[in-house]
Write a structure and sequence with these properties.
Nudix hydrolase domain-containing protein, WH-like_DNA-bd_sf, Arc Repressor Mutant, subunit A, alpha+beta, 7 helices, seven-stranded mixed sheet, single chain, two-stranded antiparallel ribbon, WHD_NrtR, catalytic activity, Nucleoside Triphosphate Pyrophosphohydrolase, NUDIX_hydrolase-like_dom_sf, 9 strands, 2 domains, about 250 residues
């Protein structure tokens, strides 16, 4: 058939004339608890890959999701009951091998959420989910290609931590700089230069003094609050590791 206008063409267009791939959003949901970086996994209750651990996620809803970010926020809310202060797309992967049901595309996101807030809001749910340390999760036999997806998300989180204020999203309203540095170190898996870290935070205006203190051990420590509009602030240089262990002793 020959069409004389775009309107006429679209009026006769049939989506079912073409094969379409499966399209999902998968999420690596990170948090910090018990001094370790944790990632939330869900055990699949249906085929395919029944019984295996997987990243939380689901299919794009063509009727309700205006874009992929909307799908990601919807799935995060469904799986955790909360909104993340930071959500970022890592990569989009598609091929004929990753899902036995057929040609499949997934948009991979990562989120960083408050562990205590998640525990409170999801304590009555029955879905089988579990927090694993990142080392434990990377050793699991995960469903589909989710081990690859988790590794990609973990690497992105580490890179963002080296040059942004993202870990500050996990802090309470008031905190010490030592507490903030500890969160950075847990995510990165190594220690940071103490003086450089504090100077970087204060010179960038990422934190501000509150005039309040709390006792840490037997010494008073200054309390700070996060001072910027969002957590995607970029430092001009990456955070530094200490030149030797004695330079980074914490007080």
């Amino acid at each position: 058939m020959t069409y004389t206008s775009e309107q006429e063409y679209l009026a006769h267009y049939q989506k079912t004339d073409y094969d379409t791939p499966l399209f999902t959003v998968d999420m690596a949901i990170f948090s910090v608890a018990k001094g370790q970086l944790q990632v939330l996994m869900i055990q699949r209750s249906n085929f395919p890959e029944k019984g295996k651990w997987a990243l939380p996620g689901g299919f794009v809803d063509l009727k309700t999701d205006p874009d992929l970010m909307a799908t990601a926020h919807r799935k995060l809310l469904e799986k955790t009951g909360i909104h993340s202060p930071y959500l970022e797309q890592v990569e989009t992967i598609g091929n004929q091998y990753r899902d036995p049901r057929g040609w499949s595309i997934t948009a991979l996101y990562f989120a960083l959420i408050d562990f205590d807030q998640f525990e409170i809001q999801t304590s009555t749910t029955t879905e089988h989910r579990q927090w694993f340390t990142i080392d434990q999760a990377l050793q699991l036999d995960l469903a589909f290609d989710h081990q690859q997806l988790l590794q990609l998300a973990f690497e992105r989180l580490g890179n963002k931590t080296r040059y942004t204020a993202l870990p500050a999203s996990l802090m309470p309203e008031l905190f010490t700089l030592t507490e903030l540095q500890t969160i950075y170190e847990i995510i990165l898996g190594h220690r940071l230069e103490k003086k450089s870290f504090r100077r970087r935070m204060q010179e960038a205006g990422a934190v501000e003094e509150t005039g309040q203190q709390k006792i840490v051990g037997k010494r008073p420590a200054q309390l700070f609050r996060y001072a910027l509009q969002d957590y995607n602030f970029t430092f001009p240089r990456m955070l530094e590791t200490p030149r030797n262990s004695t330079e980074n002793e914490k007080s």
